[in-house]
Write a structure and sequence with these properties.
One of its GO terms (molecular function) is hydrolase activity. It contains ten helices and eight strands. By secondary structure, it is an alpha/beta fold. α2 crosses α3 and α4 crosses α5. The relative contact order is 0.16.
């Protein structure tokens, strides 16, 4: 894997993109992975390697102020992360690849779909298309202190027990130290916003959920899937961070098989 920077343009900061070149013949569609709240391109290392081995040119973006990207989360809004994603996707196969978004990244992908019209989209434990009241309730139920932080406009610090079910302690700790305190405005917008415009119905969408998710209730994932007419796959025994948790290979296989079934060709 190699890290490259998408150059700054105008008022937009330079963005980190991690690239895993396809192993052998690149005969499948390029993928752009979009991370969730407080994460960065680093969280996709398992899936980047798996996607490259499956014949994809695989890329992962870090939003401004996250990972190795320039800029700051201070004052950042959802529209800024959408702009970051559109810029990154447009630089890869002119936006005609596949967008794969996790949690907050899934919501960002929903907003990017009508703009760039990718070949397909995958929503992983995605934040609801509508105000994420279910997520707020879930966070309060499982970690009342974080619920208070959310209400007070402070960055959430979701612990390993909220994100993983089977990841070993050392790996979980290593992930925690790489987290970025999230924009308070973005967190607020999760609870007060309007849904993204619906994209073209010709864009195939897969929604992957897990019954053990402590951040996004599965009923919210199902509602979002219905809104997009998405194929839905539900997993068990894996946490919210399904690309990092101990069962990441199972989750990737679900996505990989669906992408193969769609016969999305490279551009």
């Amino acid at each position: 894997m190699k890290t490259m920077m998408l150059p700054a343009t105008g008022m937009e900061p330079a963005l980190e993109i991690v690239h895993a070149p396809a192993t052998g013949v690149a005969d499948r569609s390029p993928l752009l992975f979009v991370h969730g709240l407080g994460h960065g391109a680093w969280c996709w290392h398992n899936w980047l390697e798996a996607a490259a081995a499956a014949g994809h040119q695989a890329y992962a973006l870090s939003f401004r102020g996250h990972g190795g990207s320039e800029g700051s989360v201070a004052g950042a809004r959802l529209r800024d992360y959408v702009a970051d994603t559109v810029r990154a996707a447009t630089s890869i196969a002119d936006g005609k690849g596949v967008l794969i978004g996790h949690s907050l990244g899934g919501l960002i992908v929903q907003h990017a779909l009508p703009v760039i019209k990718p070949a397909a989209a995958v929503l992983l434990a995605s934040i609801s298309a509508h105000p994420a009241i279910g997520t707020a309730i879930s966070v309060v139920r499982h970690d009342p202190i974080q619920g208070l932080r959310l209400v007070a406009g402070l960055p959430l610090h979701l612990g390993p027990d909220m994100l993983f079910t089977g990841l070993d302690a050392a790996s979980a700790a290593a992930a925690m130290v790489r987290m970025t305190p999230e924009s308070a405005l973005v967190q607020y917008q999760l609870l007060a916003r309007t849904p993204a415009p619906l994209p073209s119905p010709s864009i195939p969408v897969l929604s992957v959920a897990t019954t053990d998710d402590r951040v996004v209730p599965i009923r919210a994932t199902r509602a979002t899937a219905r809104r997009y007419g998405a194929t839905i796959r539900e997993l068990e025994g894996i946490g919210h961070d399904m690309m990092l948790d101990a069962g990441w290979q199972t989750a990737w296989d679900v996505v990989d098989q669906w992408l193969y079934s769609q016969a999305v060709a490279p551009t």
